[in-house]
Design the sequence.
């Protein structure tokens, strides 16, 4: 088999409601997740099972067994009863690390699709999904990369139809530790109801929702608040929010042209930030 590749798209939480931790210390949540037409790229090519990484955010990433891609590989091998030894895996890391847009989970999901194609084409979707679930709370949603309401701890998905949304993603260049953000959120101790029913215009609906991790993330990294205020200052921005546990923020725009204009302005005013215009769906 020649080289095969798959996009590992960025995940965006349009809203993220987080409940108080349960007896195990985990947080039930409810979130509307969508996916960008941009992300990392994962490929298989003839080889011996090695992982290589390049791209603008490759520096410092491990190619060892602690990489989520290889964790997904090992779980796939166990589930399918195969050994992945006929292909090398290559990751082009286009998305910032620890940025709240699901990069690692998306990479794991992409490699699982490629492994099924190469090693176990008859594996049912349910079996592949069970493997993805072992990679983390975002594993299943990032396997399918389709808009959904996520509940439970993120693994219970209800598909929803969301119109294509022109958007700009911006990350100020800080890695935001998810455990640290949740710790800061718990320390405040204010837990609001997590229910929300999507209806009508998406932007109007989102104004009735929130990202409960936004304030604690800003408390840890004040630059996120600066980015957020910057987004809100531009005419092209219809709605702005942080995604996931940060530090990536997003702005929704009326058109792709507006998104490109906003991205150009942000690159000028935030020259060290990662900025990307995209479509969310």
Sequence:
């Amino acid at each position: 088999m020649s080289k095969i590749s798959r996009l590992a798209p960025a995940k965006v939480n349009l809203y993220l409601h987080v409940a108080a931790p349960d007896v195990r210390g985990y947080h039930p949540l409810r979130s509307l997740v969508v996916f960008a037409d941009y992300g990392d790229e994962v490929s298989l090519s003839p080889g011996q099972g090695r992982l290589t990484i390049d791209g603008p955010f490759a520096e410092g990433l491990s190619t060892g067994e602690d990489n989520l891609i290889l964790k997904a590989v090992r779980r796939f091998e166990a589930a399918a009863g195969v050994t992945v030894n006929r292909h090398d895996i290559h990751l082009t890391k286009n998305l910032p690390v620890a940025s709240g847009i699901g990069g690692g989970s998306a990479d794991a999901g992409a490699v699982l699709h490629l492994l099924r194609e190469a090693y176990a084409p008859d594996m049912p979707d349910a079996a592949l999904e069970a493997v993805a679930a072992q990679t983390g709370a975002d594993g299943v949603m990032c396997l399918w990369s389709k808009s959904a309401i996520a509940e439970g701890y993120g693994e219970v998905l209800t598909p929803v139809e969301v119109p294509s949304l022109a958007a700009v993603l911006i990350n100020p260049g800080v890695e935001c530790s998810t455990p640290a953000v949740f710790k800061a959120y718990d320390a405040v101790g204010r837990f609001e109801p997590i229910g929300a029913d999507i209806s009508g215009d998406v932007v109007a609906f989102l104004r009735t929702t929130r990202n409960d991790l936004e304030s604690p993330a800003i408390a840890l990294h004040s630059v996120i608040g600066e980015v957020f205020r910057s987004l809100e200052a531009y005419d092209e921005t219809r709605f702005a929010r942080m995604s996931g546990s940060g530090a990536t923020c997003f702005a929704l725009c009326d058109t792709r042209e507006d998104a490109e204009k906003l991205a150009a302005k942000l690159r000028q005013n935030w020259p060290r930030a990662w900025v990307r215009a995209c479509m969310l769906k």
Summary: Residues 103-119 form the longest helix (17 residues). Strands lie at 4-18, 29-46, 51-54, 87-92, 148-151, 156-159, 165-171, 239-242, 249-253, 274-280. The longest strand covers residues 29-46. The chain has nine helices and ten strands.
